[in-house]
Amino acid sequence: MVMSSLKLQDLIEEIRGAKTQAQEREVIQKECAHIRASFRDGDPLHRHRQLAKLLYVHMLGYPAHFGQMECLKLIASPRFIDKRVGYLGAMLLLDERQDAHLLITNSIKNDLSQGIQAVQGLALCTLSTMGSAEMCRDLATEVEKLLLERSPYLRKKAVLTAVHMIRKVPELSDTFLPVCAKLLHERHHGVLLGTITLITELCERSPAALKHFRKVVPQLVQILRTLVSTTGYSTEHSISGVSDPFLQVQILRLLRILGRNHEESSESMNDLLAQVATNTDTSRNAGSAVLFETVLTIVDIRSAAGLRVLAVNILGRFLLNSDKNIRYVALTSLLRLVQSDHSAVQRHRPTVVECLREPDASLSRRALELSLALVNSSNVRAMTQELQGFLETCPLDLRADCASGILLAAERFAPTKRWHIDTILRVLTMAGTHVRDDAVANLTQLIGGAQELHAYSVRRLYSALAQDISQQPLVQVAAWCIGEYGDLLLEGSCEETEPLQVEEEEVLALLERVLQSHVSLPATRGYALTALMKLSTRLRGDNNRIRQVVSIYGSCLDVELQQRAVEYNTLFRKYDHMRAAILEKMPLVERGGPQADEEVKESQEGTRLLEPAPVPTEPQASKLLDLLDLLDGPSEDSQQPPPVDSSPEGTLIHLLDLPCAPLTPAPIPNLKVFEREGLQLNLSFVRPPGTPTLLVITVTATNASEGDVTHFICQAAVPKSFQLQLQAPSGDTVPAQGGLPVTQVLRILNPNKAPLRLKLRLTYNHYGQSVQEVFEVNNLPVETWQ
Amino acid sequence: MIKFFLMVNKQGQTRLSKYYEHVDIHKRTLLETEVIKSCLSRSSEQCSFVEYKDFKLIYRQYAALFIVVGVNDTENEMAIYEFIHNFVEVLDDYFSRVSELDIMFNLDKVHIILDEMLLNGCIVETNRARILAPLLILDKMSES
């Protein structure tokens, strides 16, 4: 059953008539089956019709790859109408990735040398659209020949095909370079346009070409001048009064590339640019397009200062224009200018801020970027106000950018800490979910550092929290603050805010609400639980409520919360005497430290795990904390250093046992290493059980003589495979007659378990003489390094 | 450089599509629907330039048909805006008061005109007479 194939018009009619997607698909499938059949054995005369239908169907989005071979056949046919459809099909259906495309090369070659302009034009068009690298290489000579043809119709197409070839095969630039200079002398606008594009492409690709073409700058200037001046005015290409704006724009763009970073060329362009800028009629869009390109060029090259001011003023005028398109391009260009001509752009700040209120999303986005770039220390308050107003009404995708922009600007230019805290608070309240993760850490850091504002911040945060517990960053910061400074909250009055009478019960109730709310993230609940715990020492009432909450959460499903709750529970039960010390106010943390969450944990763990060695100095404490950093975190089990005895109750109890338990199972005997005139040096050794490679030596210097030992310095040296850390001594004077000894701690890491060798050097003053002693410590007990 | 040139009507049906950079066929329909959605959602007071992924879209509405051109960053948006209007004027000249149906039923001729004006994403000819000359010759040949 052979149905008569439809003509293209009828097919279109039928598709239009289809009421539903399914019906349309049916029609098209029927037709495609037909087309396939006719390709196989159909009449070659009507093949082009079939392909035309196929292309229409392809445009609608249906697969049409079976038509590829047909395209080839049609291209090879001598009839123009076949070739036309064939080439169109090739452009639409074939591309580099299909294997069939190389087969066209031969046909194109023949067509290019044929001599019939229309055919050659077709071939060039197709080549420039889908020519692959191999095809370009093969056909480069043909195209070059065509560049020298007499007919401008062909030349303009050949030039643009050359552009495509250069894009695909950069080596061909050398072939096409010499022709350009000649082509520039053309009067035909089409060819000129193409040539400028070719030169632009060449210059963008190679700096050598750039240098070569700098010579033609005067020529370009001349062309543009004739275009702009009234004597060169030709009606042929004028669009709404501007003669060939497209050519003008292209020339300006090329001048921009040539003049960039090059004094000489920029200078020759200055007059011309001024002329174009002042003479162009901007009442219609074409004129504005040219003016816009001129401004861009002025900005990019090394132009005279007066010219730049002119450019900024033009942009300012654009900003006030009622046409939205013009405002958009003005904002875009001002953004580019703001780095280099900051003061000039500042003058237009009020207009830019006006544009923030535009309903148009593209415009407001540009205005936002520009406003953020314009913030400086003098206008920060006003600008932040405007930006916050914008934050309330802006579309969602801009919120994150706006919020982070405000926070950044506040950080750089905040006039006072209180203003800074206020600003961050307001941003968190309005757009809390869109801020970056480190905003919480930054804010807690900031509040922690501003001691005088503790009371103020905790009150503000409390009121904000009482109103709304859904903004997670805000809740986290508020919970942390309330935990830390809860006593200030309950105290009474603070001059900077209205008097707020807060009861203990209210505070606890609020924190419990946060804990129980389903919108709170697990991290937030962690904050709240810790805050509750801290309040147990800050509040004066009794802690039953808190203890209840903590014990309930001991069986929470979330493991992180459960761990915390169990630890706090133990704190209440077994270690109540340590609770106050552990839950003290936090010291100020260095910027860039870990999340506040972990800091709390660390400070708590840090106090538990400090070895009872003398005065843990900074390096030691941070080393400990580092260790804990690695081992801490959301994983709850084991991995807590160092479990002493394996007790069945779980690792947490080990930690708490540690300060009380003896440090080593078998103590290493002390060693006396030096004695001279009453000054004695003793070494005592400690091998902490959890770290088998670590040896802690305490050097004790005692003085039994009649005279004081002053300026006492002890230095140590170990073999290369060891790592030695010398800590600050307790003092440098050993008073006479058994006065307070000077102690110093040495930490030695012995990763290879090599035999320990130790050399000591002492310098001190005794009985008015300065003494220096260097000696090696012999007979070190074996336990020190095994 | 121009990446694509589309003519889509308000219902989302593509009337003309030309891609100057390869895009997979199923991605094309997706692209076209997204593009038309973002253009339709804008009112007439908003500007004609939209940012979409990593290109810029410049669109212009003529009755029920949207002409959308996607360009990369280097192009001058206002020049392209002008070019769209130029194109429509050429069509107007050829079809004498062009309408959407004219474009639908004479798709190949519209392609020829577009190929005369844009080659590989660059503007090549903007003069109305010169663009239509080869087409008029072709018409005369097929008549005779």
UniProtKB/TrEMBL annotation, chain A:
<keyword id="KW-0472">Membrane</keyword>
<dbReference type="InterPro" id="IPR013041">
    <property type="entry name" value="Clathrin_app_Ig-like_sf"/>
</dbReference>
<keyword id="KW-0333">Golgi apparatus</keyword>
<dbReference type="InterPro" id="IPR050840">
    <property type="entry name" value="Adaptor_Complx_Large_Subunit"/>
</dbReference>
<dbReference type="InterPro" id="IPR008152">
    <property type="entry name" value="Clathrin_a/b/g-adaptin_app_Ig"/>
</dbReference>
<dbReference type="InterPro" id="IPR011989">
    <property type="entry name" value="ARM-like"/>
</dbReference>
<feature type="region of interest" description="Disordered">
    <location>
        <begin position="589"/>
        <end position="617"/>
    </location>
</feature>
<feature type="domain" description="GAE">
    <location>
        <begin position="666"/>
        <end position="781"/>
    </location>
</feature>
<dbReference type="InterPro" id="IPR016024">
    <property type="entry name" value="ARM-type_fold"/>
</dbReference>
<comment type="similarity">
    <text>Belongs to the adaptor complexes large subunit family.</text>
</comment>
<dbReference type="InterPro" id="IPR008153">
    <property type="entry name" value="GAE_dom"/>
</dbReference>
<keyword id="KW-0968">Cytoplasmic vesicle</keyword>
<dbReference type="Pfam" id="PF02883">
    <property type="entry name" value="Alpha_adaptinC2"/>
</dbReference>
<dbReference type="InterPro" id="IPR017107">
    <property type="entry name" value="AP1_complex_gsu"/>
</dbReference>
<dbReference type="Pfam" id="PF01602">
    <property type="entry name" value="Adaptin_N"/>
</dbReference>
<feature type="region of interest" description="Disordered">
    <location>
        <begin position="631"/>
        <end position="650"/>
    </location>
</feature>
<keyword id="KW-0813">Transport</keyword>
<keyword id="KW-0653">Protein transport</keyword>
<protein>
    <recommendedName>
        <fullName>AP-1 complex subunit gamma</fullName>
    </recommendedName>
</protein>
<dbReference type="InterPro" id="IPR002553">
    <property type="entry name" value="Clathrin/coatomer_adapt-like_N"/>
</dbReference>
UniProtKB/TrEMBL annotation, chain B:
<comment type="subunit">
    <text>Adaptor protein complex 4 (AP-4) is a heterotetramer composed of two large adaptins (epsilon-type subunit AP4E1 and beta-type subunit AP4B1), a medium adaptin (mu-type subunit AP4M1) and a small adaptin (sigma-type AP4S1).</text>
</comment>
<dbReference type="InterPro" id="IPR022775">
    <property type="entry name" value="AP_mu_sigma_su"/>
</dbReference>
<dbReference type="GO" id="GO:0012505">
    <property type="term" value="C:endomembrane system"/>
</dbReference>
<dbReference type="InterPro" id="IPR016635">
    <property type="entry name" value="AP_complex_ssu"/>
</dbReference>
<protein>
    <recommendedName>
        <fullName>AP complex subunit sigma</fullName>
    </recommendedName>
</protein>
<dbReference type="Pfam" id="PF01217">
    <property type="entry name" value="Clat_adaptor_s"/>
</dbReference>
<dbReference type="InterPro" id="IPR011012">
    <property type="entry name" value="Longin-like_dom_sf"/>
</dbReference>
<keyword id="KW-0813">Transport</keyword>
<comment type="similarity">
    <text>Belongs to the adaptor complexes small subunit family.</text>
</comment>
<keyword id="KW-0472">Membrane</keyword>
<dbReference type="GO" id="GO:0006886">
    <property type="term" value="P:intracellular protein transport"/>
</dbReference>
<feature type="domain" description="AP complex mu/sigma subunit">
    <location>
        <begin position="1"/>
        <end position="141"/>
    </location>
</feature>
<dbReference type="GO" id="GO:0005737">
    <property type="term" value="C:cytoplasm"/>
</dbReference>
<comment type="function">
    <text>Component of the adaptor protein complex 4 (AP-4). Adaptor protein complexes are vesicle coat components involved both in vesicle formation and cargo selection. They control the vesicular transport of proteins in different trafficking pathways. AP-4 forms a non clathrin-associated coat on vesicles departing the trans-Golgi network (TGN) and may be involved in the targeting of proteins from the trans-Golgi network (TGN) to the endosomal-lysosomal system.</text>
</comment>
<keyword id="KW-0653">Protein transport</keyword>
